[in-house]
């Protein structure tokens, strides 16, 4: 290519770059979605096993009232009521907390699949 052709090409490129072009499209707006703990409990990709939940969050995750959470963490209840299954928990500065991984295991150990129409439930356990 001759020097005059290179100069002409560079001039054309400089003009093209200096002229305002069409505006770039705006990015789509961010969508903020808040999932309930009952859905997040099983999302290991979003919530690691060591995550600590409050009483309110654990109640939402397990689908039970807060009173059911307190009943399953009561020392008196564990000692005097064999029908109440204790819920794994820790205390952090006196406050009840629940590790997500322990709640997952607790639920999986108690899971039952009942076939409709049977007079006796068909129980299929996980990890038994």
N→C terminal distance: 79 Å
Radius of gyration of CA atoms, rounded to a whole number: 30 Å
What is the count of β-strands?
3
Strand residues, percent = 5-15%
Described by strand count, sense and barrel closure, the largest sheet is: 3 strands, antiparallel
In the CATH scheme, the class of the domain at 37-110 would be Mainly Alpha
Defining traits:
128 residues; three-stranded antiparallel β-sheet; mainly alpha; 8% strand; Multidrug-efflux Transporter Regulator, Chain: A, Domain 2
Q: What features would you describe in this structure?
A:
The chain has 128 residues and is mostly helical. It has a domain at 37-110: Multidrug-efflux Transporter Regulator, Chain: A, Domain 2 (Orthogonal Bundle). It is built from 6 helices and 3 strands. A 3-stranded antiparallel beta sheet has the order 1-3-2. Helix 3 crosses helix 4. It is elongated, with a radius of gyration of 30 Å. The termini are far apart. The model has no long low-confidence stretch (mean pLDDT 85).
Quick overview of this protein structure:
The chain has 128 residues and is mainly alpha-helical. The chain is built from 6 helices and 3 strands. The chain has a domain at 37-110: Multidrug-efflux Transporter Regulator, Chain: A, Domain 2 (Orthogonal Bundle), CATH 1.10.1660.
């Amino acid at each position: 290519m001759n020097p005059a052709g290179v100069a002409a090409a560079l001039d054309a490129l400089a003009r093209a770059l200096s002229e305002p072009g069409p505006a770039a499209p705006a990015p789509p707006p961010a969508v903020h979605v808040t999932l309930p703990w009952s859905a997040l409990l099983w999302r290991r990709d979003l919530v690691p096993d060591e995550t600590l939940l409050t009483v309110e969050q654990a109640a939402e995750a397990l689908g039970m009232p807060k009173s059911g959470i307190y009943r399953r963490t009561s020392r008196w209840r564990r000692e005097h009521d064999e029908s109440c299954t204790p819920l794994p928990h820790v205390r952090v500065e006196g406050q009840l907390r629940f590790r997500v991984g322990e709640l997952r295991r607790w639920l999986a150990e108690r899971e039952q699949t009942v076939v409709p129409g049977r007079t006796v439930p068909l129980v299929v356990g996980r990890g038994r």
